[in-house]
Amino acid sequence: MTTIQKKPRIGQVNPIAHLTGEDLELMAKELDDIRQSVVDTRGERDARYIRRVIKTQRSLELGSRVVLLASLFPPAWLIGTAGLSASKILENMEIGHNILHGQWDWMRDPKIHSTTWEWDSATPADQWKHAHNELHHNFTNVIGKDNDLGYGIMRVDEDQPWHPMHLGQPLWNFVNALFFEYGIAAYDLEFRGAVARGKTKDPKFKAEFKAVRAKIRRQVTKDYVVHPTLSLVTGSFIPTMLANFTANTVRNLWSHSVIMCGHFPEGVQTFEKRSIDGETKPEWYVRQMLGSANISGSKLMHIMTGNLSHQIEHHLFPDLPSNRYGEIAPKVRDLFDRYGLDYCARPFPQQVYSAWHKVVRLSLPNGWLDQTNARNLPGQLKRLYQMSTGGPKVRRALQARMAQEQRRSLTPAA
After folding, report:
1. 9: which DSSP letter?
2. What is the value of pTM for the model shown?
3. Which residue of 29, 127, 252, 405 is 20 to 30 Å from 234, comparing CA positions?
4. Do 255 and 227 form a contact (C-beta atoms < 8 A)?
């Protein structure tokens, strides 16, 4: 299962080699008990929480849009844009994402239910639920199955062959972050695969594409036509349009960063397709634990991340109310400690740096970044140029040489 079937890389230790089948069963039993303890105590306190968050978000959005009617004046533009950015983050992260997970379906409130909620995003809710809830959460960090892992545009594991085109992945990732909601719409639509397989004429794809196009049209009309038009009376049409664009960009950058921190920092495991063949529930639990990372921080940080700062707990129990993740996190961490697993949690800046470091590291041939320093930089750049301009044989030969050098550097001197 999982990393047991992956060929160990140089200097890598299998993080679950010490666990027996009995260990996995006992750990799964404890996780089931943690989940049930929350299910048994869900109630009015939780319902008040989500209703309060929704009311706060809607009040913040309405107030910000009213302020932006006078956005010709810089103070109004700054206050309105900041408020609108925060409201969009709240709506996407703590409200929309979690409602669409079914975390609040137990309330039986038709207005706050995964089957009726439509969120402020370019992706139609139904398509997102299929791509995210059914695919991403079932195939967390499985290369070739989980589109959230690298978003289909990046090299995400050392075992994937390096190609010169990967040199551009830091740039692609940044552009993706700027327009993240549209990137997510494309992933959920599986647009790239449909084009590659020539299935753009397929009736199902055409219907889903039409739904995405209609949703984007509604979003654009709301943010870049209706709201700016209301500001015409104060001469604030252009400032209001720019404010909406800025708020959407801030929301995109924030949500992209949070998701990167949850799945892509150094220390988070990836898995081969064959590693999940015949996977049991205890093994599924372990894969979620190894394939996720948390962000440590304040209560405000947790709310603004949609409690995806507790990504480990979310992946273990995706349908539990998000406000309860912080409550069970110490119990989950204790489980990690007792079973000798690494609970990957760092402050937000460190996780962002770690994730981007991995993006850059994997954009280069294996070991190139680790072996490069100020003294050997010219030689390393020459080697990189040779690998970028040479054919597959040249790349394989130079990669093998670097692997040999890395192995030698890790071997203790006699």
Report:
1. P
2. 0.91
3. 252
4. no
